[in-house]
Amino acid sequence: MPPHFRTERRFLRDGCWPIAGVDEVGRGPLAGPVAAAAVILDPERLPKGVDDSKALSAKAREDAFEQIAARALAIGVAFASVSEIDGSDIRKACLLAMERAVAALSTPPRLVLVDGRDLPALACPGEAIVKGDALSLSIAAASVVAKVMRDRQMRRLAALYPHYGFETNAGYGTKQHLEALAKHGPTPFHRMSFAPLRGG
């Protein structure tokens, strides 16, 4: 079943608005930043075709992204860099990216719905929802925006570092990527705190 807007409507009926959905992508790759997005949807103009970004093809994600961009009331996108990931840990970097994404919204939310178990530092109340990207339309929209924006950044890195296949693997440890690492070594955008790079 695709994600729905019921959770948001429950808060909306209680006078709690605006509500932002927040999600991050890029927790597991060996290279590239973590990306996060915060999205405030318009209850009267909900985007079509939105689902958890992992459940959508690349073409469907791009189509959903265009719907979200055209209909959302506010979108915030932010990143945590490789140096920030290596300087702390991936969990803290994800929370930092989500905090930045909420701060980037043009409209401050009164409530933030976050995918997962952890909440970033927020200036308003927040609610963590496990598997929220499969349940909440606002969180699913954020997952789509974060995924599309991170994939675009990885394609830009692929143009600078063509050996690693970033345009198709998005920095994940595929066979091609690992072979390129063995042959060419890491780029400045590889996460040196991650195995198999750690200590290498």
Strand arrangement, largest sheet? 3-2-1-4-5
N-to-C terminal Cα separation, in Å?
A: 44 Å
Low-confidence stretches: none
Q: How many structural domains can be distinguished in the coordinates?
A: 1
Work out the radius of gyration: 17 Å
CATH superfamily: Ribonuclease H-like superfamily/Ribonuclease H
Write down the overall mean pLDDT.
96
Topology:
Blueprint: H1 6-13, E1 19-25, E2 34-40, H2 58-71, E3 74-80, H3 82-87, H4 90-103, E4 111-115, E5 126-129, H5 137-160, H6 166-169, H7 175-184
Parallel strand pairs: 1-4, 4-5
Antiparallel strand pairs: 1-2, 2-3
Helix pairs in contact: 2-5
List keywords for this structure.
200 residues; Nucleotidyltransferase, domain 5; alpha/beta; 5 strands; globular; five-stranded mixed beta sheet
Please give a structural write-up.
With 200 residues, the chain is an alpha/beta fold. The chain is 40% helix and 15% strand. The chain has a 5-stranded mixed β-sheet. The N and C termini lie far apart (44 Å). The mean pLDDT is 96.
